[in-house]
């Protein structure tokens, strides 16, 4: 916002600093689409959160919670293929993803409407301190739990000989992914602070 009594066009960037000029945002059609998309995604992740809580309250245990939210989770997290999972590890990253996505899409929606509550801004930039390691741990534990099945079944592996003279060992690939996970994720977190 412009300083009182000044004719300048400097705006507060939300972090106590000043921006030289205000960036032009998306047009009305794009803003409308983005608001609708973010509201739908927030609602979807809220459905997942409510489903988790309802299933937990009904069963009194976290065992089998994944199956109570499997369909909406696959719909709203389309990239997540959970072929092999353990209850505990999946629960770790599903809870972390759910809370993160509710906060993220709420943040985007309110930002687009230029009405961002402090609590959502605080949650967006603070809760990842707990949610990020929780999600990473769940993802790594799920990959680890899948390793015996992947090795035994040869899942997604390509053996020689074949007409392309190419081989790929998915089991080894998953181990390399696990080894690289911590340095890559740590670099990402460090970049957030720089």
UniProtKB/TrEMBL annotation:
GO CC annotations on file: endoplasmic reticulum membrane
Keyword Transmembrane helix: yes
Record's bilayer topology term: Multi-pass membrane protein
Keywords, alphabetical: Endoplasmic reticulum, Fatty acid biosynthesis, Fatty acid metabolism, Lipid biosynthesis, Lipid metabolism, Lyase, Membrane, Transmembrane, Transmembrane helix
Key word DNA repair present: no
Reaction catalysis annotation: (3R)-hydroxyhexadecanoyl-CoA = (2E)-hexadecenoyl-CoA + H2O; a very-long-chain (3R)-3-hydroxyacyl-CoA = a very-long-chain (2E)-enoyl-CoA + H2O
Subcellular location: Endoplasmic reticulum membrane; Membrane
Family under the similarity heading: Belongs to the very long-chain fatty acids dehydratase HACD family.
Listed PANTHER family: VERY-LONG-CHAIN (3R)-3-HYDROXYACYL-COA DEHYDRATASE (PTHR11035), VERY-LONG-CHAIN (3R)-3-HYDROXYACYL-COA DEHYDRATASE 2 (PTHR11035:SF17)
Protein name as it appears in the record: Very-long-chain (3R)-3-hydroxyacyl-CoA dehydratase
Organism: Hirundo rustica rustica
């Amino acid at each position: 916002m412009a300083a009182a009594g000044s004719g300048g066009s400097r705006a507060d960037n939300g972090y106590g600093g000043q921006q030289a000029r205000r960036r032009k945002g998306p047009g009305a059609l794009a803003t409308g689409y983005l608001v609708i998309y973010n509201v739908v995604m927030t609602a979807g992740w809220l459905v997942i959160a409510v489903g988790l809580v309802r299933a937990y309250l009904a069963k009194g245990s976290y065992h089998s919670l994944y199956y109570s939210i499997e369909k909406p989770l696959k719909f709203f997290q389309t990239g997540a293929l959970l072929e092999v999972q353990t209850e505990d590890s999946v629960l770790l990253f599903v809870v972390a993803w759910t809370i993160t996505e509710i906060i993220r899409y709420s943040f985007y929606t309110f930002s687009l409407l230029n009405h961002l509550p402090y609590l959502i801004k605080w949650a967006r930039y603070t809760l990842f301190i707990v949610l990020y390691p929780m999600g990473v741990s769940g993802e790594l534990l799920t990959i680890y739990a899948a390793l015996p099945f992947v090795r035994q079944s040869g899942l997604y592996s390509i053996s020689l000989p074949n007409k392309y003279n190419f081989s790929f060992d998915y089991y080894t690939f998953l181990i390399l992914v696990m080894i690289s996970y911590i340095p890559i994720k740590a670099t990402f977190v460090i970049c957030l602070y720089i």
